[in-house]
Protein: Tyr recombinase domain-containing protein
Amino acid sequence: QKLHRESMQPEHVRSLAEHFAGPAASLPDLMMVTAISVMFAGFLRFNDLAQVSVRHDLLVVSESHMAITLPKSKTDQEGVGHVVRIARVGGPACPVGLTERLLSLGKYNRVPRFPGEDVGPLLRRVKFTPRGHELQHVTGTARSPISSLSYTSFREKLQAMCSTAGIKRGVMPHSMRIGGNSAAAARGVSEEARKAHGRWKSGAMVQLYTRLEDNTALDTTRNLGLA
Structure:
């Protein structure tokens, strides 16, 4: 069935970064904008984002890009995992730069100190203390792992931030996956490359997640040579 969620646009991600991820951004705001940018650039579902671990060997940041290892996903039926690579593009909405800032501001522990210690996901609950915002839990255990922020909480925060930033369309957590793929399509990225990046099994699924804005859709008839 055709998806009815509207797509997030690149300018929306930039707007959210300008509103909520400035130099004095709070930990919860920076975490949300980072999550939005990473989902957009990585074509991630919310369930994918919830699994993004900050462990040093599962979230690797370099000068050119970052590599995120997803242990499992909806399309990974064999359970072999996927590595999502996201380029460093610069600017206030860069997913790599935002991730680096978030890891630093949140004081995440990225290296387990003993076997069975859980360092937790990138997206998680935050508490307010006399010292300011802090991660609710820095580490957990294999028996009691740190949970990601819930889908409902994420959706509500996303919609509140979009409203504040003046983004009128009905944005949902899946809007970033649709928007990232659609933005790539509008800029000439091949269907095969988008299928691989989005971890889709067929071209039909890629098309299902593609939304072309009016100006892009009109380019077809503008280039027919009728003028």
The chain is about 40% helix and 10% strand. The beta strands are 59-61, 65-70, 82-87, 117-118, 126-129, 132-135, 140-141.
